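Our preliminary data section would be incomplete without showing what the modeling component actually yields. Below, a chain of 422 amino acids is followed by its predicted structure, encoded as tokens that our downstream tools consume directly.
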Amino acid sequence: MVFDPNDRWGKGLENLFSNGVGLSATAVVPVQMFGHTATHTLSIDYSSQTGTDLSDSQILLPDPPTPLSQKSGFYSIAYQYNQFFYENPQNPNDRWGMFFRATLADGNPNIISYSILAGLAGSAPWRPQDSFGLGYFYYGFSGALKETFRPILTIGDEQGVEMYYKAALTPWLNLTTDFQIISPAIKSADTAYILGFRLGVVFELVARWCQKITSRLSKEYLMSLKLSYAFTIFFVTLGPIKTIPGFVAITADLDRATSKRLAIRGTLVATAIVFATALIFSGTLRSWEVSLPAMQLAGGLLLFSGACASLNKGFTLPPEQATDAPEPPELSARELNNIVKRRALSPLAVPTIVTPVGIAAILVFLEIANADLFATLGIYGLLILMMVLNLVGMWFAQPIVRFVGFPNFQVIGWIFSVLQAG
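Predicted structure:
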């Protein structure tokens, strides 16, 4: 390919090739490696365009006394290897593999001398409608650039890691989470940690969805998914009825301020677990070809067994009556902090707030929703409501238990267990 290095971005042809000529050639060789598709790609680019000579020390001056030196001849040679490790013959978009790219450049006037990119990317094996990527990059900056800026700035090479996950919330709405760790070329700068989110909308699919929304709401959604029923199941399996007495037992040796910190941290951890489960694993059932009736049966068995296990526990004494141990010693702020961090994940978030039957209920109801926007948003809204109720319940756990009474709380729990079994 031959192109004008300037007018490929501009308008008209009045200055065609006035600042050199650009040449680009690419060769792609497909092969079969390890039983899957692979490609070797060689790209060569050259431009006779002139650019600033990076070895001219006048670059450092705000107002150079003479024009900066110019240097012509940009070039780069790149080799790329792509290797797929999984390919779905029924769906060409359902595949993932590795990539590797190495590039050599002139280094002057180009600010890059070489670069290396490598990583894994493709559709998520556990949820084919999602995609993921994990990559490493290394940029070797021009030696002339480093030497010229040495008196005022130490410039080295730059490297980093990037990870992203693109979750298909619906067929036309996706959310991409991207995280990067970058060791910058400017050595006086700190390592950068960058977290980003991107929301994407496929408007063609939105239009199709709008045409079907009325019938879907009236037939599929209202008939197959009862949010009131989902609320009841979530309240039993993820709600505060089981969380409050468990929280009282977990915080029996902690003061009120530390207990509140633990409640907040535990709620955040539980919320992260619940939404990670909902976003990442909700499509796993379809990819594993598990039918909805089979999942409903499995979820029902888990609900029944969980209810039976709760009923078989019998009556337990409240924490302050369960032991005659002396008052615990005073703990330092650091020790209390460590306790909060340790207990927030376990036993508070898991299994007190997030239970196995709760996870099963989330997957079942999201599968029933079947990517319907309002149904899916309703499920997510109920999950947020459960986490808020848990936080409020733990925040006022002691007054609630004193008012209701620990034995009465257990009786209420038994009643809900019977409802859960039913």
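Residues 172 and 203 are 7 Å apart (CA to CA). The mean pLDDT is 81. Preliminary results of this kind motivate Aim 1 of the renewal.
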